[in-house]
Amino acid sequence: MTPVLPTVAGVLSADQVAVTAESIASVQLRSGMIPWFSGGHADPWNHVEAAMALDVAGRRVEAEAAYDWLVRRQRDDGAWHQYYVDDGVEADKLDANVCAYVATGVWHHFLCTADTGFLESLWPVVEAAVGFVLGLQTHRGEILWARHADGTPWPFALLTGSSSIAHSLGCALAAARRLGHRRPRWERARAKLVRTVAEVPGAFAPKDRWAMDWYYPVLSGIVSGPAARQRLDEGWGRFALAGGGIRCVHDRPWVTAAETSECAIAHLAAGADDQALELFTWAQRLRVDDGSYFTGIVLPEGVHYPGGVGAQSPGGERSTYSAAAVLLAADALSGTTPASRLFTSPVLACETSRFSYRSAGQNGVETELTVPQGRRSTRREPVVDTSTKPSSSARQ
């Protein structure tokens, strides 16, 4: 049976979705690992994102191969390392958000396929991952960013990461309920995390210049309703480049396909449908004829980045996670698959409508911290400040 693929009228056709899915599948290794690009490394968060995109495009076999790879790579403590290459571990840090995201992917796959057998077989993987993640929760409620390979925790939490984890915990609880398991500890931990994200901005390392700290509390469903619209409206002028997309940081003209697509989903979740479609349309500026998407572009110069070593073309890097974010946004906008509302309606009742939005920076962390430069320490930006010659290397 031929799957029905997402179509966003006048912007992205079903045939184009299929070509983009092929651009992801063509990079997938025989092991099932989906690297950022051919010859590059993989991180489990973006690996799951790519697997979800493959499911959106009806490529179930490839998606399940991706989850099989995660099963084989999971550590005894339920975690995964930060970066992998096909023959082993490249960076051994254990990022909580990276580890939690498997729950989102597994629940997404179940929604797409209605395969209870798959859900049952992956349940021990999800359960172990959640156990590792909750081991990093503070008494206040936030989830510390990561552990070193020796088990030592990092001393701070990230707003984007904790927001994403809250959504993943909702997916884990949805899977538990579907399988008849009760997990009251998870429910309490998630409620505490949601409350901390919504009410205690000082619990997180200050990263106000990053777009993901702006829209992720909305994308994760923690901030909703009028508060979500207010949050997005207040940040629009700082992060949106008209006709271009979403800047990864507000003080540089560095637009990325992934952030633009994710922000489109966040606007859809907030009921801002017109802005969601506008953002998705802008993201197509980064589309390549083979269906892949450039990771980023410097505007107005039109220089793609990163470039140089590791780039799939002389014009700059094209990443599987960028293509994946576009396909997930296409599904959310079109409502095509049974998983299309995963990021636009609550996975579970959060009861967050009572939370009021607090502007970024209020009661911020007083101490100066050295924090990772991206949401999951996996997104990249030009090193140099000049907008015309972004470096091919990147800060991590």
Summarize the structure.
The chain has twelve helices and nine strands. It is mostly helical. It has one domain (14-334): Alpha/alpha barrel (Glycosyltransferase), CATH 1.50.10.10.
Largest sheet: 3 strands, antiparallel
Number of β-strand runs: 9
CATH architecture type: Alpha/alpha barrel
Helix segment tally: 12
Structural class: mainly alpha
Number of domains: 1
Protein described:
It is a single chain. With about 400 residues, the chain is mainly alpha-helical. It has a single domain (about 15-335), classed as Glycosyltransferase. Helices cover about 45% and strands about 5% of the residues. It has helices spanning about 15-25, 45-55, 60-75, 95-115, 115-135, 160-180, 185-200, 210-220, 225-240, 255-270, 275-285, 320-335; strands at about 85, 90, 95, 145, 240, 245, 255, 295-300, 305. The longest helix has 20 residues, at about 160-180. The protein is globular and about 45 Å long. The protein starts with 13 loop residues before the first helix and ends in a 62-residue tail after the last helix.
Lay out the secondary structure.
Blueprint: H1 14-25, H2 44-56, H3 60-73, E1 83-85, E2 88-91, E3 94-95, H4 96-113, H5 116-134, E4 146-147, H6 159-178, H7 184-199, H8 211-219, H9 225-239, E5 240-241, E6 245-246, E7 254-256, H10 257-269, H11 273-283, E8 296-298, E9 303-305, H12 320-334
List key phrases describing it.
single chain; disordered C terminus; three-stranded antiparallel sheet; two-stranded antiparallel ribbon; mainly alpha; Glycosyltransferase; 6% strand; 396 residues; 12 helices
